[in-house]
Structures are given as structure tokens and as C-alpha cells.
Amino acid sequence: MFHVEHLRSRRYGEVKLNIIESIDKFIPRADEVQRKRFERYFELLTHWNEKMNLTALTEPEDVASKHFADSLLGAELIKHGAECIDIGTGAGFPAIPLMIMRDDITMTLLDALNKRLVFLNEVCIELGLHATIVHARAEDAAHDAHHRARYDAALSRAVAPTSALIEMSVPFLKTGGAALMYKGADGERELAGAKRALEKLNAQGRVISLSASWGERCIIEAKKIGSTAPCYPRKPSNIKKNPL
Prior knowledge:
seven-stranded mixed beta sheet, 10 helices, single chain, alpha/beta
């Protein structure tokens, strides 16, 4: 029994050291308070991941790079004091890392699965972060007057077609606001396939290519240039069956 506990303690110590080193490596500008928050976030993420599916990545270096640092790739595209919404926030990416590093922004965490929001509520409490947590589908929340045309930035890292993300994201934005969609290597192709969505949602798109040691990344930005027609976003079934 002592041997088992000793191995567990040793493993915990190794993981703790690895996440500290990985945070320093991939987020070198983080100060001591921010590093502690990332460390605690990692602990909560891996603990909760044992009882619910939050992430396939659990090794310290993978989480620090492909989740934490990756979430911060869009930080400079968000204006000072911005009011943001993370659509389909899941385990809190990109919202939580952005909140850790950008205390000037406000954040709404939107997800259709309540148990993920229970996890994120604990994360916010443990890390001393303040966020509005909303349990709803994006397609419904975007028609709610409390959320429609309210935000400066709408964020998403969801694995979904760009045209669908544009339709779900742009209605949340004020005119002049931007949807920031985190993507991989095919940003230009994906944006080219979303021209009709940009036209219908009254937005302009561009691809921002980003350099990352963990893979080819980009952010597709859709900037809202005018009001959104009341019919958007459509019902989920229509978005899936008849994409713009």
C-alpha cells in the first residue's frame, strides 16, 4: 500500500513540475498569479476529465500548448475592454485562458451541455475569475434580446463548418464587432466556401495566419458591417441540411 501511494505521490510531483515548465515554455509572458491560475486550471481539467469527457489531451505539454497557448493566439485581435462571448465553450477554450491573461475583458460562457458549465463554474470560482454562464444553444441564445447584437467579439474553437459558425456567431455582435474562429491549416479554403454566409450575415471575412510550434493555425475573422436579418441564425436542422 505504501508503495502504491509513493508512486502516486511521485507521479503527481512529476506532473506538477511538467505543467509548470510547460506553462513557462509556451506562455512565457504569464506572471506568477497567471501561472498559478493556469496550473490550477490544469489540475481541475484533468480531475474532472476522469468523470466526463472534456478533452482528449491530458499530458501537461499538450494542454499547455494546444489548449492554453492556442487559446491565446487571438488575444491581440480583441480590443481593450471588449465584451466577449465564447460560443460552445466546452472545457473553457479559448475563454478561460483569455480571461487569465486579459483582465480587461468581460466574458460570457455559452454551452448547450449543462455539466460542462458546472465544471466551468467551479473553474471560475477556484481561479477567481468572473464570467456570465449561459446554458443554451447558440441558435436560441442569438435570438434572445439580452445577447443579440451585444458583443464586441464572438469566439469559437468548435469543429464545425465556417459557414455555420458565421451564421451562429455574427448575430451576437454589435456592428463593428468580430467573430474569431480558431482554425487549422485550411483557413483560406474554408473562408472561400463561406462567401454566401458572409453576404447573408452582413460581414466581411479575412484569414489571419498564425505561427505555432504545435501546428499550423489560423483565425478566420468575420467582421460585422451592418445589421443582421431577424431570420438568422436558423434552426440547427436548417443550418445542417441547407448550409449557406
